[in-house]
């Protein structure tokens, strides 16, 4: 179990890097909730191509966590893992709060659906998920490679939502965002001592360097893994999903077993295979008239 001092140090490092990456990609951090974060794009100022920037930031953040984990392992501390959910929709943004305390933030159904996307990461075994509306907002020149995992009815919603896994970026782009000026915040240590200016600048430099390294890693990891290999896997999964939704379970099973023979650790494919194997029973209960192949989530 981490000491209070170690936990605070790890969280500060992690949250600083995640914030830096978000801001480098034109986003804003709205909330820090323990070890969780809520970020938004395209408000209060317009951010062109904001859906792509949000997905790119998520890819870089996943790579940044790998680099942070290298530091943690060297220090004998447990490693971190993150899940990122992205949704594009209309929100109410502005000063929110009471007469005594207010802040700029966003509220609305789109915020809730982004949270549902993050929760679905655990269900599908994926690191980054985006909704169908985000996927539709991605321009071809963004170079982002995604695959549809399923159509899902999340808790509290009657209409299904297409869920996509964000896998990699096929071409490197420099985020068209000017670096934000860093505000000098006085952060007391656990022992209540004041940080020196030199120490603060060193921490900031370390954060900037790690964010840059993660950005480069997000690009090179995609090129190393091979776009052709990913395309083949995505095509096989997409074909199997179509057969599952059409209640052609034997064909879907054959396609998935072929996929898993080459990529045995593909967790969404393992999940879909489980659904396919239980498909005939589910189809018998629903009947051909109302069978949709939707995944209905009873929990958040």
UniProtKB/TrEMBL annotation:
<dbReference type="InterPro" id="IPR050697">
    <property type="entry name" value="Adenylyl/Guanylyl_Cyclase_3/4"/>
</dbReference>
<dbReference type="InterPro" id="IPR029787">
    <property type="entry name" value="Nucleotide_cyclase"/>
</dbReference>
<feature type="region of interest" description="Disordered">
    <location>
        <begin position="169"/>
        <end position="228"/>
    </location>
</feature>
<dbReference type="GO" id="GO:0009190">
    <property type="term" value="P:cyclic nucleotide biosynthetic process"/>
</dbReference>
<feature type="compositionally biased region" description="Acidic residues">
    <location>
        <begin position="179"/>
        <end position="189"/>
    </location>
</feature>
<protein>
    <recommendedName>
        <fullName>Guanylate cyclase domain-containing protein</fullName>
    </recommendedName>
</protein>
<dbReference type="Pfam" id="PF00211">
    <property type="entry name" value="Guanylate_cyc"/>
</dbReference>
<dbReference type="GO" id="GO:0035556">
    <property type="term" value="P:intracellular signal transduction"/>
</dbReference>
<feature type="domain" description="Guanylate cyclase">
    <location>
        <begin position="1"/>
        <end position="118"/>
    </location>
</feature>
<dbReference type="InterPro" id="IPR001054">
    <property type="entry name" value="A/G_cyclase"/>
</dbReference>
